[in-house]
Write a structure and sequence with these properties.
Keywords: Hydrolase, Nuclease. The chain has about 200 residues and is α+β, with helices and mostly antiparallel strands. It folds into two domains: about 130 residues; about 55 residues, no CATH class. Helices cover about 40% and strands about 15% of the residues. Strands 3-2-1-4 form a four-stranded antiparallel β-sheet, with no helix packed on it.
Length: about 200
Amino acid sequence: RIMEQKLATAENEVLEELVKLVQSLGLRGENGGWKQFLDLHDNNSQSPNESSKLVAFLTTFKKKEDLQVVHSHANFLVIEKLKQESPDKDTPEQSLVRLTVEHPVYSLDYSFKPYSEEWFVSDVGMKTSNVMKSTEMVAVDCEMVLCEDGIEGLVRVGVVDRDLKVILDKFVKPDKPVVDYRTEITGITAEDIENAT
């Protein structure tokens, strides 16, 4: 139901891109793919790109992994649109977001596909205008250690709001043995995460 409401208020361009994405990935909703959906819903009377038809098709996806793909790509499209818009009227918050997503390593280090079952994909919002009006911000800091398999593991996550009020400060025990706590950088020792979960 929430997904349906978000899609209903999405910009047509976003809806069209989402339909193209699910087609290219071969995803099928309850009524099959896009072409099967159109066959079932007499596409002669209305344009196949009409928003209501696109929304109706996209709401036929019920599997969690399919919904994650749709949410993730919708968020990506909002960020891409933000990058293309003129920064002349940006608020300080929007400037910060713009500088972050335009940084050369952003897409390499901070853009990943959360399609696995353990991931939760939040909605940025499917209307760029909604995103651009928001001044709510949080800062997230993750302290990482080196695990024995050569991959970094999370050991502490902190979140503060725009007024530096601590929202979250939690130690996390990596699921693999740690070989380097990077204490000189993180300040974290083995004792800090002894009782962490």
